[in-house]
Each structure stands twice: as C-alpha cells, then as structure tokens.
Design brief:
about 260 residues, alpha+beta, twelve-stranded mixed β-sheet, two-stranded antiparallel sheet, about 40% strand
Length: about 260
C-alpha cells in the first residue's frame, strides 16, 4: 500500500503524458490508441481504432480549447463539404463523470484521464506484490488488487487534503462512468523511480437497453472490460494544434446529418 500510495502521490504532479492503450472495451471491440495530453489547460490528441465500432479504421481525435476535432478513415468525408476535419463544441475530455463530452466518438473508458485511473488502486484493501517484471524496457514491480465503488467512497471520505480528495472524487466518477459491475481488478506496474509505468483494468460491466415508450429501460449484462494503459513519456513537451480552419467544418453547420464515425 505504501508503494501504491507513493506512486499515486507522484502521479498527482504529472503535467503531461504520452501513453498507449490496448485491450477490449465494451461495445467497441478491440481498441488500440496512442495519445498525448497535458493537464493545464486540459488538452489531448489521440490516434485510435476500434474493431467493433470503426472496423479497424484509423481515427484522429483532438481536444483543444473546449472543442473537439475529428479526422480519419472512419469518418464519412462526403458529408464534410470538402473538409478533412469536423469540429464540435463544447467538448471536454479527462474530467469527472458529468464533465466529459466526446459526442460518442470515444468510448467512455477513453474519455477518462489515465493519470486518475492509475490511482484507483489506492482505494483497494487487498493490494499484493506479484513480481518484478520488465515493461517497455523498464524494470518494474507488479502490484495487484481489487477496487469497488464502496472502497472508492471510503477513500474519498477519508482523504486528507484537497488534492487527495479531488483524486478520489475523480476516481469514483470515472468508475461509475465506465459502467463497471461490482469489482474492478487493477494491475499496477511501478518503476524503480516510484512512478507508474503501466496499469491494467478488468471488470464485468452493465449496459442499458430500451428506454422508449414501447420498451421500458432495462439494465443488462455488458461485455467485459480489459484495458491496459502504458505510460511512454511523462512531463515532456506536448503540442496539440488545431487543424487549419479552411479544412474544418463545424458540426453545427451540417444540415445533412452528423458524420458517421
């Protein structure tokens, strides 16, 4: 627990991150993504594909100055009036449960800040050391534990200090946003520098269907989540630039429907 808490404390000070995501996400299938983000102001650029939603086609998604920009093979470009990108605002990424908005372009699991997600193991009551392992060329210690919403609530209520409490509030919000069912299993790899190198999240999920006048809302079992996030670079310069305005069309100005992605 001391090692996990130390890594979480260090993560709170991260100002930028380059990371990779692999795994299986409910309703989206196999997902691969690589992204760079910075925390102030909250900015992110990601290239991804998802076999279930995009058929493996590449998609580039940017969040800059409260707006989202989308480009790639998965976009129906014939609706973009000759442009290569479409934009939408207000858009937000990396915030709490109610603050994120990617207009359905990203899975909820990828809307969350991976720095916050990596701290969830601090709410576990059964953390154990597994082994010393090499991750992306770095020597790490592998820890594992389980996290529940009740555990995150208890950690939130017991948090001392503004930063620690905010971390637990954001962790709880992201737990709920991912529609996790019961227990989340978290594997965490911490380097010799006490920094997080990688984490893996696994859980059953729930889904909803219906909610119309003909069919009442029903909560059903969802697909399992199994997502691994690897930290590639920390606190290095990150530049996410908006695409040229002449090559971008505002989603609100499209009269022939929302581009399919």
């Amino acid at each position: 627990m001391a090692a996990v808490a130390k890594a979480a404390s260090d993560a709170e000070r991260i100002t930028s991150l380059h990371y990779r995501v692999t795994g299986t996400v409910p309703e989206w299938g196999r997902v691969k993504a690589e992204a760079s983000m910075r925390t102030a102001p909250m900015t992110m650029g990601m290239e991804m594909n998802a076999t279930g939603r995009y058929g493996g086609s590449r998609l580039e998604v940017l969040f800059v100055d409260g707006a989202m920009y989308v480009h790639g093979e998965a976009v129906e470009t014939e609706r973009l009036k000759g442009a290569s990108w479409f934009s939408a605002e207000p858009a937000a990424w990396g915030l709490d449960l109610t603050g994120n908005n990617s207009y359905g372009v990203l899975p909820r699991q990828l809307e969350g800040n991976p720095v916050v997600q990596s701290m969830m193991l601090t709410a576990s009551k059964d953390v154990r050391r597994i082994a010393t392992e090499t991750v992306d060329g770095a020597r790490t210690t592998h820890y594992k534990g389980t996290v529940t919403s009740d555990g995150l609530k208890a950690a939130r209520d017991a948090a001392v200090g503004v930063a620690a409490r905010e971390r637990q509030i954001n962790s709880l919000g992201q737990f709920w946003a991912m529609r996790l069912k019961g227990t989340l299993t978290v594997d965490l790899w911490i380097g010799d520098d006490n920094r997080t190198k990688q984490f893996r999240m696994r859980s059953d999920t729930f889904a909803s269907k219906g909610g119309t006048t003909d069919q009442p809302l029903e909560i059903v079992d969802g697909d399992p989540l199994d997502m691994t996030v690897t930290f590639l670079d920390v606190d290095q310069p990150v530049a996410v630039e908006t695409p040229p305005s002449e090559d971008t069309v505002d989603l609100a100005t499209l009269t022939d429907g929302v581009p399919t992605v």
